[in-house]
Structure formats: C-alpha cells, structure tokens
Amino acid sequence: MSAVASTMNNDAILKVEHLSMRFGGLMAINDLSFEVRRGEITALIGPNGAGKTTVFNCITGFYKPTMGMISMQQKGGKSFYLERMADFEVTRDAKVARTFQNIRLFSGLTLLENLLVAQHNALMKASGYTVLGLLGFKTYKDASKEAVEKARYWLEKASLIDRADDPAGDLPYGAQRRLEIARAMCTGPELLCLDEPAAGLNPRESQELNKLLRSIRADNGTSLLLIEHDMSVVMEISDHVVVLEYGQKISDGDPAHVKNDPRVIAAYLGVDDDEVETVRHEVEEGAN
Ligand SMILES: Nc1ncnc2c1ncn2[C@@H]1O[C@H](COP(=O)(O)OP(=O)(O)OP(=O)(O)O)[C@@H](O)[C@H]1O
C-alpha cells in the first residue's frame, strides 16, 4: 500500500501531475496535469482517441503510467499515490471506484445479488476468512445484514428497488447503467469514476442518470469524475470540465468557460491549429 503524508490542497481529492503514458511509439497522454475538487462533478471530455480512457486506466490502476504522479486524498486526510497501486488496492484502500464503457454486470444474478457481490471484500473480512465465520460469527451476520441494507439503499436511490429480485440482464439498458453505478457505490468510494455513463441512453434515461449523479454528489458527498461525449449531460451536471486533445490538456474551467473556448470548438470541429484564431473571432462575434 502507498499511504503517504498529505501535501495536497484540502480542496482537491485527486491531483494528476505531469502524467504521461506511452504505447510503443504512441504518446497517448503527454504531460497532463489537472485536479478533481472534493464534492464536485468533474468531466473529462475530448474528441475520440484523445486519451480519456487511458487517463481513467492510469487513475484506477489498470495501467502503470510511463511518468507522472496521481495522488488521492481521503476525507480523513490519508493520501495515496495511485500510480503505485494495483487496481484492487485502488478500490479497496484508496476508495476509488469505476464503471466501464461497456456494461459489466452479472446478467444472470439478480439486482440485489449484483450489489451483494460488490460487497464481497467487507463480507469476507467479517467472516474472519473462515467457513466457520460464515456459519456462526455474529460479526458476519451483522455485516451481511448491513450489506443487504446498503444494497437496498442504493437500489432505492437508483429507482430500481421494484426490480430487486429480477435478473440484471432483464433490465433495459439505461437501468443497467444505473445498476452499475449503484454497484460501484456499494464499495463506499470517495471518488467515483464513470466512463461514458450516458452512452446509448434515451433522453428520459439520461435525465434519470443526471438525477442519480446529482444525488450522489449532494447526499453522499462523493466526488465524481466522468468521461462523457454527450455535451448536454456535461453542461447540465458538471461543476468543472477538463478537455483533452491528442493526450494534452487544451482547456480547464467551468462548463461556460469551456463551451466558449475557441481551442475546444476548434478541436471538436477538427480545425487545424492555425485556424483557431479564426474560430476565436467567430465565437466572439457570435457572443455579441
Ligand atoms: N492498450 C493500448 N495499447 C496501444 N494503444 C492504446 C492502448 N489504449 C489506448 N491506446 C491508444 O491511445 C490513444 C488514446 O486512446 P483512449 O482510448 O484513451 O482515447 P479516448 O479519448 O478514451 O477515446 P474514445 O473517446 O474513442 O473512447 C488512442 O490512439 C488509442 O489507440
């Protein structure tokens, strides 16, 4: 484990500093620095191939970065260098959970069972890692009761409680996405990383997702970092937006700032660097 002395602002839960990731001859992330502030929703956006998922994979221990530091500071003051940790340690010790672009539920298990499996670590600990523990320990009985209560709480919040005993595979797509988020929340994260949570959702499902994400921020105090292509979701729910292009940061600020940043507009329109000034004039004229 990589617990370290705290050096960060109280304000930042996650600090990415000079992060680089090379795949052979390709520099997928190049000297990237940004912060995720505690209690906020931060969106990481950028055109296809900009490096967003690679950043997530570095934060959550799936990739070891070529260079750079990723520090996470928990509420209690304990800090971790995530780039030194294995993926399961990032979830278990640093309390960073994630979802993936493609849904990864146990489709044959019920919704409730999916949320109980997510709490396997806590239950095993309470069993004392013995079968006798499973049969008799009070701590195990208490922990399993608590696990069911937590699962029910998250099913309620995700508006899925009515389907608790149905197989996860029977849910409509948007509901499966919310179940994944509920499952990640059952691990008790302080930072939740979501990879394209709104992908493939219809407008109603998208609204339900926004509601869930806002309530996670407001009621549970969890900080969120999300990759998202759907600009209506990004603009509606984010407090802070970081924009990547070719593995580098091209803009960083609140949604209104980023939306009007000519470099961002140019990146999304596929405009060359020497045409950014033209886009800047057009944006300024449009605003007047
Ligand atoms: N494991 C890998 N091996 C080699 N190249 C990779 C690997 N993972 C990502 N890349 C490359 O790194 C670059 C960034 O990819 P990444 O998936 O992080 O972008 P992205 O912004 O998430 O894209 P999208 O929006 O399409 O999901 C791409 O050129 C991609 O081909």
From TrEMBL:
Keywords: Amino-acid transport, ATP-binding, Nucleotide-binding, Transport. It comes from Rhizobium aquaticum. Residues 14-271 form the ABC transporter domain. Signal peptide: none annotated. Belongs to the ABC transporter superfamily. It comes from the Bacteria. Pfam families: ABC_tran (PF00005), BCA_ABC_TP_C (PF12399). This is Branched-chain amino acid transport system ATP-binding protein. GO terms for molecular function: ATP binding. SMART domains: AAA.
